[in-house]
Amino acid sequence: MRAFWAIVAKDLLTELRLRQVLPTMLVLALVLTTVFGLAAQDEVRRSPQTAASALWLAFVFAGLLAVERAFASERESRTMPALMAAPLSRQTLLAAKCVSSGAMLLAVQAVMLPIALGVFDFAVRGPVLPLAGVLLAGDAALVVLGTLTGAMVAPSRVRGPLLSVLVLALLVPMMIFAAQTTAELAAAGWTPRAASLLAAMAAADVVFAAAAYLLCPWAVES
Length: 222
Description:
This protein is mainly α. Helices cover 86% and strands 0% of the residues. The protein has one domain (2-221). The chain has helices at 2-18, 22-39, 42-45, 48-76, 80-85, 90-119, 128-153, 159-188, 192-221.
């Protein structure tokens, strides 16, 4: 566990010092959210479905920036051989990269959610805890699939476009569930439909995590 937290701390401290990814993530999410919100008509701007879809679209593209740099930065700084030689499993390395990328994405979401509530002119009903669960479930799918794919495409010169194509193709169903659950919470609060959608997202997260655990050694060493 010490190696796990050391990698997470190293990634976050490096980002705080160099600010390579987080500002870009925030600007991209802000631009996408405000453009959709301000360009929409009043009745559309008050629609929870529109707001949730625009918000998750912004989160996905912002998150792709974080996961793309997770392993690419190690190869560019030539620290990947040291990580590979360290006494830790490939699964631990992947999990640490997922946590650091997820932390950056959560930071962006913490800033963007209040802005989105104002831009789209709607309020989330019911308890906040289910909304936090939706964010965590959606983020988990994005960072697990994105980081795993990012490890595979890190040596490529076109890793950014390649990562986007591969991850978006796999994430479409999950992002639809995330947008629908967020819209349901915004429109009606915690309902049986919201509970079933969140349960489906959690089940998908388990499948993605199991696949990442099995494919991790091959992906990291590719």
